[in-house]
């Protein structure tokens, strides 16, 4: 499974501040996108503010939940509103929908809950497997088509 890992991700309640922390303390430049909307198959769209960039071939992502089924993120953020930046998930990218579906099926067969399942519109699919009990973090799966060219414009560190 980990041979497909292409992203490490954090959650926060202030994406601009978190992106500055990465720039100032780690030397990692990230681009911030506001109002990024994801289609969720069994509910309202999931809207996030997100910071993205690459360190070598690994994509770094910081997510600030905005609206929709955000419990996947907000349950790990302080109710007080105090700033926080927490590691949240690893992401595996698959080349085909078949590989993606096999990974989801294998998790379901093992009794792993799929917390969110959705799409990037016509550009691909994503899902979060709740592997916190075994890995301490969520496992995200994605399959993208060639229409995700905006990824080429992300900062490279």
UniProtKB/TrEMBL annotation:
Gene3D superfamilies, sorted: 2,3-Dihydroxybiphenyl 1,2-Dioxygenase, domain 1 (3.10.180.10)
Name by which UniProt lists this protein: VOC family protein
Source organism of the structure: Gordonia caeni
């Amino acid at each position: 499974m980990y041979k497909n890992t292409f992203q490490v991700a954090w959650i926060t309640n202030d994406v601009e501040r978190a992106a500055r922390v990465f720039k100032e303390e780690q030397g990692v430049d990230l681009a911030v996108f506001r109002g990024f909307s994801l289609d969720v198959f069994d509910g309202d769209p999931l809207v996030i503010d997100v910071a993205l960039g690459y360190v070598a071939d690994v994509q770094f992502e910081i997510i600030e939940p905005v609206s929709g089924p955000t419990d996947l993120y907000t349950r790990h953020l302080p109710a007080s509103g105090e700033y926080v930046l927490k590691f949240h998930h690893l992401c595996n990218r698959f080349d085909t929908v078949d590989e993606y579906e096999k990974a989801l099926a294998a998790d379901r067969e093992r009794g792993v809950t799929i917390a969110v399942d959705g799409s990037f519109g016509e550009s691909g699919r994503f899902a979060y497997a709740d592997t916190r009990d075994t890995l301490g973090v969520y496992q995200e799966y994605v399959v993208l088509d060639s229409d995700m060219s905006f990824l080429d414009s992300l900062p490279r560190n």
